[in-house]
Amino acid sequence: MHKHSSTRAQARALNLRRLMSAAALSALAVAGAIVFTALTPGRASAAALEQFKQFVASTQSAKGDFTQRLVRNDNGAAKVVNTSSGSFVFSRPGKFIWTYHKPYEQVLQADGDKLFIYDKDLNQVTTKKLGNALGSSPAAILFGSNDLEKNFTLKEAGVKNGLEWLEAVPKSRDTTFERIGIGLKDGAPVAMELHDSFGQVSLLSFGSFQKNPPLKPNSFAFTVPKGADVFNN
Q1: Alpha helices in 1-98 (DSSP H)
Q2: pTM score > 0.85 for this model?
Q3: What is the CATH number of the domain that holds 80?
């Protein structure tokens, strides 16, 4: 593989690792207007938890756009080391299509039973059983079942940047994430902050968010692209 191909593969692998942490899906991340700060409570508020529970109860499916940034602490200063963007659609539980459009085209798609990872440049498909992979991962917050308090401890995290924040701490130790922040406004999540055990923060913002859009029954069925190599894990 040429050097530039290796570099691009490493960048794609970084996105993949942060979407598929430990034994689970991991990092969604970004947020243009969200400042790199720890989740520190502002004024006391029950609005975040109330909004989130209402969102989970009323949202069977959704679609929208995302922007993703990985931020590291570089000698005390926040530094963005990876940026990507794309679109998503999901139907609870366990069905989703998470598509990176920039900087490289990549698709992560689950039909409720299997997860398919398609790299367009390499024309490769990797498959694995979805199983309990969502578990205590950040992806479970969007794509999992409604019983989130089984896998997360939820608590209010106050107000920041005009959003009501909720903090979710995984109950399982089999995850690389220490805590996840969920920023809500008008009854829907618009941002997430994922703090991992390595001191990195993934920031995720959502746009064009549509709740319960009409979806075809076969919307999440994956078709292997012509000529693609398939690897089963």
Answers
A1: 3-19, 47-58
A2: no
A3: 2.50.20.10
